[in-house]
Amino acid sequence: MNKLMVVSGNANPKLAKEICACLRVKLGDVLVGRFSEGEIRIKVNEDVRGKDVFVIQPTCPPVNDNLMELLILLDALRRASAKRITAVIPYYGYARQDRKDQPRVPITAKLVANLLDNAGADRVLTMDLHAGQIQGFFDIPVDHLFAINVFVEYIERMKFDNLVVVSPDVGGIKMARAYAKRLSAALAIVDKRRISPEKAEVMNILGEVKDRDALIVDDLAATGGSLVEAASAIKKAGAKNIYAAISHGVLSGNANENIAQSVIKELFITDTIPFKPAESNKKIKVLSVAGLLAEAIRRIRKEESVSSLFDGITQ
User: Fold this and answer.
1) Whole-angstrom Cα distance, residue 308 to residue 291?
2) Which of 17, 51, 159, 192 is catalytic?
3) Which of 20, 58, 265, 301 is most buried, judged by most C-beta within 10 A?
């Protein structure tokens, strides 16, 4: 492992340090700053020639700044003769723009994939993509991890007797089914109509939620509007306590307030995106994925199977 090197931008240095602690390596010495006019300034302060370098940088808000930092880091490492460069992107921004669902709109998820490839990434390690087909946007290997093991391990300790796993929309059925199978729980689906990119209207609930504890599962929550609407509909249908497990807690805009005032009893998110808990919201619990990412990095470095990390997870 002496040829392994882990570096980080400014997106989530805390997660990068925790990954390094799990791997028992020190975080690489890289300057990531700004020039006076705002341009990103990067300098790698130690030798990377011939090394296997992993760049920890989720493209979370501010998305464009963090994405640009990642691209420049990749370019700097490539020009410094790193042997292999892996972009570790726990949260892949622009993933919701993965298709042309309206006339004259871009497929930005593909554009970002091209940028990463051209900047110098030899492979990508990411987690819970908004759409699995984004893996096919890359011409380099992509290792796609899932946060389900982290969530399931925590939820099993809560010892629910009569749990139902709820998908907040039809597109999340596969993920919800995987959770239901692992937790030996029932399955329900919220049928909703999307009014705008941030707002949806619940139409029906498919499945039995009455007198059950409900767990809503999804890959990300931005403003929390859809999540709160789904929780409210489930509560009206007779559910007892409502929980939610969301892989990426973007939580932009009024999300904290929306969740604090909702019927959701507790929201579980991962630390793929830095989260500063609001004083007014004690409902949010952050679970770490540092151990999972560190194990994936170790296996990639040693040329071992990464898929065995999620054997038995069918999505």
Assistant:
1) 15
2) 192
3) 58
